[in-house]
């Protein structure tokens, strides 16, 4: 039997970022996957999603901006600042607010946030203060709520990733370009991780074998975070 046999797993923003890899891996391991692509910025969207999904054993909060502009903070527009938090932070709160009471009642549940190593290494991106601030907010949320959830036997963790293949951030069309190859060499592991490798970490964090890790941002960056 698969590691996720009998589990109901909700994956958000499935068409972007790590969504495709997560859906494939959790289905392969026997989960019943509710794969959703709706815009969670819309009023009531998070609450409607949870109602439609029903019982949720695992939430994979896969959240990333579709676009962003590099700019100094004093040149960052109000719209861009709010966009980053509306995409990556506010839906996380709304989903957890809706999901956690049921998980607490059952004394079981996992939430895995697909985040960024920018939450651990502030110099990751220059001129991207809004993006980096939102990623830090995700990590802070996981740390704070993870502590609250621990006494209910619910674990909340974040994968702080970088140098990981996705068509959203590192599309295949870039891989043969020399400047991209040069950039890859700045990673100690000298390569991109695959989506499958990333999903393996998410599978562990979502499994019944991981009941004592919570409130943590776990680096997945080939050593680059050090």
Write the layout of secondary structure elements.
Layout: E1 8-11, H1 19-28, E2 32-35, H2 45-53, E3 58-62, H3 78-88, H4 90-106, E4 109-116, H5 129-150, E5 154-161, H6 178-184, H7 195-205, E6 216-220
Parallel strand pairs: 1-2, 1-3, 3-4, 4-5, 5-6
Detailed description of the structure:
This protein is of the alpha/beta class and 226 residues long. The protein is built from seven helices and six strands. Strand 1 (8-11), helix 1 (19-28) and strand 2 form a beta-alpha-beta unit.
Count every beta strand, where a strand is a DSSP E run of 2 or more residues. Answer: 6
Termini Cα gap: 37 Å
Helix content: 25-40%
Structural class, from helix and strand content? Answer: alpha/beta
What do the pLDDT scores average to? 94
- Could you spell the SSE succession in H and E letters? EHEHEHHEHEHHE
Essential attributes:
6-stranded parallel β-sheet, 226 residues, alpha/beta, 7 helices, 6 strands
Provide a brief overview of the structure.
This protein is α/β, with parallel strands linked by helices and 226 residues long. It has 7 helices and 6 strands; from the N terminus they run E-H-E-H-E-H-H-E-H-E-H-H-E. The protein is globular.
């Amino acid at each position: 039997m698969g590691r996720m046999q009998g589990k109901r797993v909700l994956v958000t923003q499935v068409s972007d970022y790590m969504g495709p890899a997560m859906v494939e891996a959790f289905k392969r391991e026997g989960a019943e996957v509710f794969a959703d692509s709706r815009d969670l910025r819309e009023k009531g969207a998070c609450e409607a999603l949870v109602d439609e999904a029903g019982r949720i054993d695992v939430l994979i909060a896969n959240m990333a901006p579709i676009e962003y502009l590099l700019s100094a903070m004093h040149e960052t527009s109000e719209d861009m600042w709010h966009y980053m938090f509306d995409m990556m932070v506010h839906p996380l709160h709304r989903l957890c607010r809706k999901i956690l009471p049921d998980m607490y009642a059952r004394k079981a549940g996992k939430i895995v946030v697909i985040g960024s190593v920018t939450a651990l290494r502030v110099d990751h991106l220059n001129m991207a203060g809004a993006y980096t601030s939102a990623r830090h907010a995700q990590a802070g949320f996981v740390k704070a709520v993870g502590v609250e959830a621990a006494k209910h036997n619910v674990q909340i963790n974040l994968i702080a990733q970088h140098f990981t293949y996705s068509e959203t951030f590192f599309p295949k069309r870039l891989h043969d370009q020399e400047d991209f190859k040069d950039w890859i060499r700045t990673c100690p592991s000298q390569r991109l991780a695959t989506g499958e490798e990333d999903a393996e970490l998410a599978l562990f964090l979502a499994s019944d074998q991981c009941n004592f890790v919570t409130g943590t941002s776990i680096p997945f960056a080939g050593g680059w975070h050090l």
